[in-house]
Every structure is written in structure tokens, then in C-alpha cells.
Specification:
This protein has 184 residues and is of the alpha+beta class. The protein has 4 helices and 12 strands; from the N terminus they run ααββαβββββαβββββ.
């Protein structure tokens, strides 16, 4: 006779949780430090994302990349993120699965009241730990923008900001553009 224990042996809890999230129907869903979080952006949040996308769009195209909000897996952890914007090479966007933070050129998170501390602290640390080269934090509650660079296992080693909304923020190469933050 087969028991529940027989089925549970050999099951990887991280893999099972991430499988469930990937096959979840409905709202965008993330796993943040093992907690399942439903992502339901407000209209003002989506507006801020649109303003950033419009400014980087031409350069993203020139680089042969795609910007979007696809899944990012953080293997070996109980994290599965859906960034507000991620820029990835076009060829990686074709495989259909989750990508890794180190496969991005830029990750952008835009805070909401419900997740501001997660974006400011947890995601900043995890994106650095998993090698996302640039992390742009648009903090709507603090009305500021900070660009983090030079990721490492203990976090980002450089931070440009926080800059108050209205201050241009330079996105370094390969972007080489100034982000207008006045309308955020």
C-alpha cells in the first residue's frame, strides 16, 4: 500500500512551490521569501511603469532586447519574482520559461504602499545576490529614484541616489541615457 509519505519522499519543496505558481491561473503571483504574494498593480503604478518603458524603449530596441514583466527565478531560494520591468536580450525572450536575474540588463521595481519595503530591502538584496547588473528603484512613497549597480553576494556596491522626482537619473552603458523622472 502506498502512503502519503511515499509520495512526499524525493519531492523538492522549492520546485513544487514554483511549479504551482507557474501554473496558477489568474492574477500575477510572486513568491517573496517563501510567501505567496498576489501582484495587483494600481493604475498610478502602471502609469509610472509606462513612463519608464517609453523612455527606455528605443534604446532597448537598439540593443536587440525586450522590456517586459516576465518571470524571474532565483534558484536555491523560495523566491519567484515578476519585476515591474526587466530588460532582457531578445534571444532569451523566446524560450518561454523564467529567466534568471543575471540574464537581465536592467530590473525596475516601482513601489506600492503594500510592497515598498520588499522592493527597497528584500528584492534589492536578492537581485544583487543573483547578479542583476542594474536595479532601478522608483519609490513612489518617498518620491525618489535610486539606481543600484555592481551586484555582489552581500548586495549592490554602488547606489546612485536616492534622487527626488524631477532629477534626471543616468542609466549607464549599455543604455547611456538620462531618465526623466519629473512625471513619475
Amino acid at each position: 500500500m502506498t502512503t502519503a509519505r511515499d509520495y512526499s519522499e524525493g519531492i523538492d519543496p522549492e520546485r513544487a512551490l514554483k511549479y504551482a505558481i507557474q501554473h496558477h491561473v489568474g492574477d500575477r503571483t510572486e513568491i517573496v521569501e517563501g510567501v505567496i504574494t498576489h501582484v495587483t498593480p494600481s493604475w498610478d503604478h502602471e502609469r509610472a511603469a509606462k513612463l519608464v518603458r517609453r523612455q527606455i524603449e528605443a534604446r532597448v530596441d537598439d540593443l536587440g532586447c525586450v522590456e517586459g514583466s516576465g518571470n524571474l527565478d532565483l534558484p536555491g531560494s523560495s523566491n519567484w519574482y515578476i519585476p515591474d520591468i526587466a530588460v532582457v536580450p531578445e534571444e532569451l525572450a523566446h524560450h518561454g520559461g523564467a529567466l534568471l536575474p543575471d540574464q537581465t540588463l536592467l530590473v525596475v521595481e516601482i513601489t506600492s504602499r503594500s510592497d515598498a519595503e520588499t522592493d527597497r530591502v528584500v528584492k534589492r538584496k536578492r537581485y544583487a545576490e543573483y547578479g542583476a547588473p542594474l536595479y532601478l528603484l522608483v519609490d513612489r512613497q518617498e518620491r525618489s529614484v535610486t539606481l543600484y549597480a555592481e551586484p555582489g553576494s552581500l548586495g549592490y556596491t554602488t547606489a546612485d541616489g536616492p534622487h527626488p522626482f524631477g532629477t534626471p537619473v543616468r542609466l549607464p552603458e549599455p543604455f547611456g541615457i538620462d531618465l526623466d523622472t519629473s512625471a513619475l
